[in-house]
Design a protein that fits this description.
There is one protein chain. The chain has 206 residues and is an alpha+beta fold. The protein is built from six helices and ten strands; from the N terminus they run ααααββββββββββαα. Helices cover 34% and strands 29% of the residues. It has a five-stranded mixed sheet, with no helix packed on it. A five-stranded antiparallel sheet has the order 4-3-6-7-10.
Length: 206
Amino acid sequence: MLRQAARLLARPAISSSSSFAARVRPFSSDLPAAPAEDSGFINAWKKIVPNMDPPATPLTFMKPRPPIPSSIPTKLTVNFVLPYASELSAKEVDMVIIPATTGQMGVLPGHVATIAELKPGVMSVHDGNDVTKYFVSSGFAMIHANSFADIIAVEAVPVDQIDPALVQKGLAEFTQKLSSASTDLEKAEAQIGVDVHSALNSALTG
């Protein structure tokens, strides 16, 4: 047993940096601009059904990935979608400020690739002198190295369409529910309502 252990210990060590580099997955922005053909599936299909063309795979319908420009572009391309609608589609803007869980995050062209979770708050889209503000409930923002930003929200509404009276009413109701809650579930539900309506109120007053 001790001899076997000695032989194992005597084996040449693999460089930790090289093994780590082999395991690291590339960022999405480091992948080829054009989607690669699903060669493994096609080869397997031809072996089993050589006389029939293989069916289309999801890669067939994917648009080529926009390449990373050699210089920082002047505009940020934004896609802003909800489960039931597309608010912005490939819209070129100067800047977007999103309510990330780590704080307000400004995104300009050339921003480093990032994924940020959204919290209830105001997302503002800046295009020249025009600023459009949306209240978002939650979601994610995916910032790509090619100056594209994909923002997905569960719910969103333009700030100018929010009724201040309904916000105040909802805040009062959830505050009352929170003070009278007796179970952990009731407290959690009431706290979420208070947080969302407080963020709505801040969006209107701020």
